Task: structure prediction
Amino acid sequence: MLEPSSVYLDYAATTPVEDQVIEEMTECMSRQGVFGNPASQQHEYGWQAGDLIALARHRVASLINARESEILFTSGATESINLALKGSALHPDNWRRHIVTTATEHKAVLDTCAALEQEGFEVTYLRPERNGIIALSEIEQALTSQTLMVSLLHVNNETGVIQDAQDIAELCHRRGVLFHLDASQSVGKIRVDVAKTPVDLMSFSAHKLYGPKGVGALYLRKPVRRHLSPLIHGGGQQYGLRSGTLPTQQIVGLGKACEMAELRMSVDFRHLTNLYKRFVEGVIGVPGLTLNGDQNAHFPGIVNLSAGSMDGEELMMRLKRLAISSGSACSSADRKPSHVLRAMGLSHEQAHASLRVSFGRHTTEEEVNVAVEEITRALA
Result:
């Protein structure tokens, strides 16, 4: 168990599962609950499970204003990203061999693109401005007659910088290019409306929005579905695009988390904005400390700091009371400086001395005050 003094400020890495989500999931895992296989449509056990899957699909679709038939369940955003990129690129009907993305993407996109390069695809990695924003003109100039897709991270998982998905989606739509949005840090936190923004494919995970790990979704605009090749073959579930027995309890958890996020989004955003202001006002005058990334086009739940010349690992050792990250939780184990910050133009030393503090639904003002005190003391 964690010590009572520990303060969790790593919500961008993962979120705790809400009690209401756990309750609905638990009902799907016992003999007395709905444990049947939703593909078993010859008896009531399968029918009940199928009904819960349908309800979850409705809740997920409602959160992003999609059609229920456009929601594909996966094991998480990483699988969704792989399916979106590889499934589109390797489809027999596809003749285009060029993908545009950015150097500040999550590793799930960067490594998938690297794998496609091994298959003969050309990938353009755009670099952002110093503030982390990708200029629309840069994307437009990168498009060619061979461009299949633009893949973009909506809210950056390290800096919180928000890209203008609307303008980029409209540009891609005009040019006949697919647009994939990695919305892992935005769905359920800021308004994402696929009926208004012409996104073709969009990936996200449950565990970033107070749901369980091991489940996510791929939004797939209906006309695009027939041009996607599956990565997993088997029983032909989910339109033949993602075979395998549907994990009812995980999908129910995702659905409930989405329902709660839709109801709480405005309240949560105001809460995060208040915490962000309190934190920034507390640390902004600390000598040697700088904020990384644009602070206007920015999600208030994530703050990225560079601590002057201090080594990042040394600083983390001084902040043992705080559960924070020295970079992306998915790649920080390699102890290399953040590829996101390096792509933004920060030096090796600045990137290595970076910290990511991320707030969530259950973060309190008192915990933010503790974080300010601890960081100030560590840098004194």
